[in-house]
Amino acid sequence: MIEDASLHAIKARSKQRANRMSTYHAKGHADAEAWDLQFWQDQGPEARLSALIAIHEDVDTVEKAKRNL
């Protein structure tokens, strides 16, 4: 039952994330960097901090997985 609830939660978060997702087809590296900068400048401080924390958590997860190989 826990696995079913966990899978349901993952699917729900995935759907929410897909609804918030922004995409852009860049014409080159400079264009992509400009779009990325504008995207993050348009986000509030809470969103930027949340993204930074998520990145750090992902890096920690990968580092722990590497140590357990």
Describe, in plain words, how this protein is organized in 3D.
Helices cover 81% and strands 0% of the residues. By secondary structure, the chain is an all-alpha fold. The model has no long low-confidence stretch (mean pLDDT 91).
Q: In percent terms, what proportion of residues is strand?
A: under 5%
Calculate the mean pLDDT score and round it: 91
Ranges with pLDDT <50 over ≥5 residues?
none
Record field, number of beta strands: 0
* Structural class assignment: mainly alpha
Could you give the distance between the termini?
29 Å
Radius of gyration: 16 Å
Helix content estimate: over 70%
Number of helices: 3
Order of helices and strands: HHH
Largest sheet geometry: none
Q: What can be said about this structure in brief?
A:
By secondary structure, the protein is mainly alpha-helical.
Strand and helix map with partners:
Elements: H1 2-20, H2 29-42, H3 45-67
Primary descriptors:
69 residues; mainly alpha; extended
